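Work Package 4 report. The design task specified in the project plan requires that, given a folded chain encoded as structure tokens, an amino acid be chosen for each position. We show below one input record used in the internal validation round.
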């Protein structure tokens, strides 16, 4: 509650009231809440004081408006030429602020405008601009900056891969060259062996021929030395016996000739491969539309408040006005006292907004939203379909795993669908252009439930293996960064985490089918609490959270939805138990308009409820 009744700080429609928990009426001794504002008097007032004010004769023509529609009060500054008059008029011809007397005396026939109206409009534009800067431009710029860093990391990995592939190609070519060279040398060796063998035969032929000549010489010498005539070989031998056999004919060997290869750098490049730049036009980075999740909170942080003050002073300086120190101090004090909280709160009753049918499934065990008019739904037979809110079937997938009683699919920040394949132990991704890829392999663990974080894009996966269970966190690239399995005392946290989600404070919330409990750990993996229902049988199925940190969990066996705060305190049964209209709730999710979508176990209908109000 406010301790004093200073002027309310400046606001615009759609921006937060940067002040106390609530505003007090400006009437003396009135402690009621401020609801209205008298623009001429610049006075906040409650409904009763407004009625009394408008009944008075001097104020019956005053413009009294709802507080958020009021005019921003112009800072008071006296005219230098007429100290009793306030500066409240802008002469557009001269572009100077003046008082009413100056306007009458010196600015006749000039275009005059109400300075307070101009000031209020510019102030409103300034606040809107600040809102856009903090809620759109800065977050989008930070997203792009993170994307650039990821691109740099991806490029580094890509170039490392290129270098490694080059080295591999070179080593492969070296091995090939060595093989070819060895084959060629072996062929040369065989040629040499054959030629040498031939030469050895020729050598042996002449060795035998020389031996024959030597023997022939000895024989002929014997003929010459013989002294007998009647058997002298020279007389009685045949003439052919005295002839010498001709020399055997041989051929010279023909040695092989080596022809050197002809090659160039281009030839080597063709063998090793080359690096080229793709002839593809670079895509523009995606920038989110002029709307972010933070607008749902309708809050501005403390840094924004001081920026508002700075721009507030800047507007006054540009307009040629001065502001007194005590006004600035008063504004800062008001900001310090402000308790900024989301304007949304729980409604006293839950109202049905609409109902739609998910074509192509028997029932709706799990829901994933990617756009306000698109929904993915799955049933007990693991049929996975995309439909619009009019019930038109847009796409259907039949994963290999046929046991669909769990939250096995989710939509990423980029709008891609990712889903678990328990039997093949993988997580698949389907991009918006319908390209299917195997995204993550989970080793020996069977992935059950999955959720893509709206905070940082991390992927949370509930898994089981041989009686064990855990939750694993992956980054957006599918790299494992965290495993959560036991608490600080060594007790196992999970038995069968078949649905999983994340709260706004980073808590990981899972529905455990075997434990019959909602198990919640903080982002570091430390156990915070477990919720086991309200005394009767409690079997948690679909689970989701909203922008206020509420945890909602479906219990199809009691036909209701349990509503908890982010610390695990039970708040209410959000839907009436055993109401025939609820249809045994099973799958849950919250859309961008803060409505709760409830998929039914007995039909293929989804009912949308409004349970928050602003």
């Amino acid at each position: 509650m406010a301790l004093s009744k200073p002027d309310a700080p400046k606001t615009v429609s759609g921006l937060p009231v940067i002040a106390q928990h609530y505003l007090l009426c400006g009437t003396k001794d009135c402690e009621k809440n401020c609801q209205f504002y008298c623009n001429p008097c610049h006075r906040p007032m409650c409904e009763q004081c407004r009625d009394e004010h408008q009944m008075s004769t001097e104020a019956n023509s005053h413009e009294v408006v709802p507080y958020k529609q009021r005019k921003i009060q112009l800072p008071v500054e006296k005219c230098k030429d007429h100290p009793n008059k306030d500066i409240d008029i802008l002469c557009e011809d001269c572009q100077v602020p003046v008082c009413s007397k100056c306007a009458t005396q010196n600015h006749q026939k000039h275009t005059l405008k109400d300075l307070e109206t101009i000031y209020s409009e510019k102030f409103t534009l300034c606040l809107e601009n600040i809102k856009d800067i903090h809620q759109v431009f800065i977050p989008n710029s930070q997203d792009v900056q993170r994307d650039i860093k990821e691109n740099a990391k991806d490029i580094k990995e890509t170039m490392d891969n290129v270098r490694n592939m080059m080295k591999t190609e070179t080593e492969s070519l070296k091995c090939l060259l060595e093989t070819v060279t060895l084959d060629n040398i072996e062929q040369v060796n065989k040629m040499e062996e054959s030629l040498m063998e031939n030469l050895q035969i020729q050598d042996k032929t002449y060795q035998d021929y020389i031996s024959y000549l030597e023997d022939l010489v000895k024989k002929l010498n014997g003929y010459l030395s013989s002294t007998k005539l009647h058997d002298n070989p020279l007389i009685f031998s045949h003439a052919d016996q005295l002839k010498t056999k001709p020399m055997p004919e041989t051929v010279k060997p023909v040695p092989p000739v080596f022809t050197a290869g002809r090659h160039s750098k281009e030839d080597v490049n063709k063998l090793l491969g080359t690096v080229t730049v793709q002839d593809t036009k670079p895509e523009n980075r995606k920038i989110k539309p002029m709307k972010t999740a933070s607008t749902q909170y309708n809050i501005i942080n403390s840094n924004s408040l001081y920026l508002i003050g700075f721009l507030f002073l800047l507007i006054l300086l540009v307009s040629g006005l001065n502001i007194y120190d005590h006004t600035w101090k008063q504004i800062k004090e008001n900001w310090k006292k402000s308790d900024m909280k989301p304007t949304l709160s729980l409604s006293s009753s839950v109202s049905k907004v609409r109902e739609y049918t998910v074509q192509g499934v028997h029932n709706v065990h799990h829901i994933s939203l990617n756009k306000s008019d698109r929904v993915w739904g799955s049933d007990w037979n693991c049929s996975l379909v995309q439909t619009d809110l009019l019930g038109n079937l847009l796409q259907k997938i039949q994963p290999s795993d046929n046991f669909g009683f769990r939250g096995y699919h989710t939509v990423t920040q980029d709008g891609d669908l990712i889903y678990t394949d328990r039997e093949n132990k993988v997580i698949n991704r389907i991009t918006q252009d319908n390209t299917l890829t195997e995204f993550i392999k989970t080793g020996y663990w069977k992935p059950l439930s999955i959720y893509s974080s709206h905070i940082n894009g991390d992927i949370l996966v509930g898994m089981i293996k041989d009686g064990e269970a855990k939750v694993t966190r992956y980054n957006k690239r599918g790299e494992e960064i965290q495993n959560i399995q036991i608490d600080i005392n060594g007790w196992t946290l999970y038995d069968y985490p078949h649905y999983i989600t994340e709260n706004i404070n980073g808590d990981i919330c899972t529905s455990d089918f075997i434990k019959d409990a909602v198990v919640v750990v903080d982002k570091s993996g430390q156990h915070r609490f477990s919720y086991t229902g309200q005394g009767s049988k409690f079997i948690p199925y679909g689970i989701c959270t909203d922008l206020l940190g509420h945890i909602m969990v479906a219990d199809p066996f009691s036909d209701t939805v349990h509503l908890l705060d982010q610390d695990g305190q039970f708040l209410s049964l959000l839907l009436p138990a055993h109401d025939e209209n609820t249809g045994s709730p099973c799958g849950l999710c919250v859309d961008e308009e803060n409505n709760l979508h409830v998929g039914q176990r007995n039909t293929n209908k989804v009912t949308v409820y409004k349970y928050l109000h602003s």
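Confidence is low (pLDDT under 50) at residues 1-21, 291-341. Validation will be extended to a larger panel in the next phase.
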